[in-house]
TrEMBL record:
Protein name: Oxidoreductase
Record flagged with keyword Oxidoreductase: yes
PANTHER family cross-referenced by the UniProt entry: BCDNA.GH03377
Gene3D superfamilies: Dihydrodipicolinate Reductase, domain 2, NAD(P)-binding Rossmann-like Domain
Domain Gfo/Idh/MocA-like oxidoreductase N-terminal: 4-122
UniProt lineage: Bacteria, Bacillati, Actinomycetota, Actinomycetes, Micrococcales
Keywords (A to Z) from UniProt: Oxidoreductase
Naturally occurring in which organism (per UniProt): Arthrobacter alpinus
InterPro entries membership: Gfo/Idh/MocA-like_OxRdtase_N, Gfo/Idh/MocA_oxidrdct_glycsds, LigC_C, NAD(P)-bd_dom_sf
Domain 4-carboxy-2-hydroxymuconate-6-semialdehyde dehydrogenase-like C-terminal intervals: 128-270
GO-annotated molecular function: nucleotide binding; oxidoreductase activity
Superkingdom, taxonomy of origin: Bacteria
Classification via Pfam families: GFO_IDH_MocA, OxRdtase_C
Length: 316
């Protein structure tokens, strides 16, 4: 079975998904969609798509389309996910799948009503570095005591991961913190029962906080400290320190190191060293096998419950 996919939104992450799908034997880039037709046609031709669209509803009406990958601006995720499910298409949506708990809950409800595959792009679950740590945890060889996480970027203007201008503003809590909040609960296997957040001044042009600090505690006392910034003029990205009862591990995207900066070979953890590709492989496999995927919208709902609580704290 070949799964025919469309990538919607052709910015930095749209291209990452297109590159990933190109490596998956039982997946095909059938269509692409973007707000500008010249961009859609150029990218579609590069990746061998059958056609390019600017009209999302027209795309969803294609009978030979099995599923969509949404790499569009955050404020479009919720409605586009619902549209895809109601059109009978499987969907993987980049995070956050909505910017409110009510929106996320609606997606979960509609997925359950339709029975289709709906998956959120919580890529950290799939990075080989984090998979390696998870295997230790499930084998009973490592127990997390604390996660210390830094998520740092330098984004004082609206720009994407390639430095290109964009029309929408990113968000430290609903986008970047979502990766860590989900990963912390996933790796510990426990729910967060205490969550605190403080934020720095809002950028007058972007209207968002540029610095944030978050503390989390699970029901059995495991803790997570997360520092986030769009003001950091230095090494960029998210860096995870796992402190446990039998060791310390540093995860930098798909790479893993001991607490003493000794690199660990994670090349045999999965069929690829690319977390985005592994995430897309899970989406395709769930469709072909008719099963719930890792990072399904229902599985990641607890993350958004925590984000909602943190948002209320910050608003108060």
């Amino acid at each position: 079975m070949t799964v025919n996919l469309a990538v919607v939104g052709l910015g930095a992450f749209g291209h990452k998904h297109l590159d990933a799908i190109s490596q998956i034997a039982d997946a095909k880039i059938q269509y692409v969609a973007h707000s500008k037709m010249d961009v859609a046609q150029e990218v579609g031709a590069k990746y061998g798509a059958k056609a390019a669209f600017t009209d999302y509803a027209e795309l969803l009406a294609q009978e030979d389309l099995d599923g969509v990958i949404l790499a569009t601006p955050t404020h479009m995720h919720h409605e586009q996910t619902l549209q895809a499910l109601r059109a009978g298409k499987h969907v993987m949506v980049e995070i956050p799948m909505a910017d409110s708990l009510a929106g996320v809950q609606e997606i979960v409800d509609v997925q359950q009503e339709t029975g289709l595959i709906a998956m959120a792009g919580h890529t950290r679950r799939f990075n080989p570095s984090h998979q390696y740590v998870r295997k230790l945890i499930t084998a009973g060889e490592f127990n997390i005591q604390q996660m210390d996480v830094q998520t740092y970027f330098f984004r004082r203007t609206n720009s994407n991961a390639l430095g290109q201008p964009r029309s929408w503003s990113d968000h430290l809590l609903w986008h970047h913190a979502a990766h860590t909040v989900d990963l912390f609960q996933y790796q510990t296997g426990e729910k967060v029962v205490q969550a605190n957040a403080v934020q720095g001044p809002k950028n007058p042009d972007l209207g968002i906080a540029m610095d944030m600090s978050i503390q989390l505690r699970t029901e059995n006392g495991k803790i997570c400290t997360l520092s986030l910034s769009f003001n950091n003029d230095g090494p960029l990205g998210s860096f995870f320190r796992y402190i446990g009862d039998s060791g310390t591990y540093l995860a930098r995207y798909d790479d893993l190191f001991t607490g003493k900066e000794e690199q660990i070979d994670v090349s045999k953890v999965a069929v690829s060293m690319n977390g985005i590709e592994l995430q897309d492989r899970e989406f395709v496999a769930a469709i072909t096998e008719g099963r719930e995927p890792n990072s399904s919208v229902a599985q990641v709902l607890p993350c958004y419950i925590v984000l909602d609580a943190l948002q209320k704290q910050l608003d108060y």
